[in-house]
Design brief:
By secondary structure, the chain is mainly α. The protein has three helices and no strands. Keywords: Membrane, Transmembrane, Transmembrane helix. This is Integral membrane protein. It comes from Streptomyces nogalater.
Length: about 140
């Protein structure tokens, strides 16, 4: 069997396994975070969590498929390892970037929700004080 095909098969198996593992880990551990962001609405948290996982799979597996092709022919075992390390390294970076992007957006939503939940002063202000000149 051609070494290039062997490298492709190994790349696909490892990339798909990594994508599934990361998606399951994020789904399992991110559900609690989503419930907090969505103010304890468990049904909505489960729905958003599922949609995020589906989107995660689509983007990452699409990237894995697009990044599969290689113009170089692999002629030796060293070439297999070099090609795999490059491809898998890029896949890991994309998985990490996707994770950080999701956490960033959800954290922004969470902060906004926390600000909206802060209590307002119980009484209206009694007077207005003009700013001093030169202050």
């Amino acid at each position: 069997m051609d070494r290039t095909v062997i490298a492709y098969v190994i790349y696909l198996v490892v990339s798909i396994a990594l994508t599934v593992w990361v998606a399951r880990t994020l789904s399992r551990n991110g559900r609690i975070f989503l419930a907090d962001v969505l103010r304890g609405d468990d049904r909505l948290a489960d729905a958003v969590n599922h949609l995020l996982v589906v989107g995660f799979y689509l983007v990452n597996l699409g990237f894995v498929a697009l990044y599969l092709s290689d113009d170089d022919t692999i002629t030796d075992t060293r070439g297999v390892f070099e090609a795999l390390s490059t491809k898998l390294g890029v896949v890991l970076l994309v998985l990490g970037a996707m994770h950080l992007g999701n956490v960033y957006v959800l954290n922004r939503i969470r902060r906004r929700g926390m600000l909206e939940r802060e209590p307002v002063p119980p009484v209206q202000p009694q007077e207005w004080i003009a700013p001093r000149v030169g202050a």
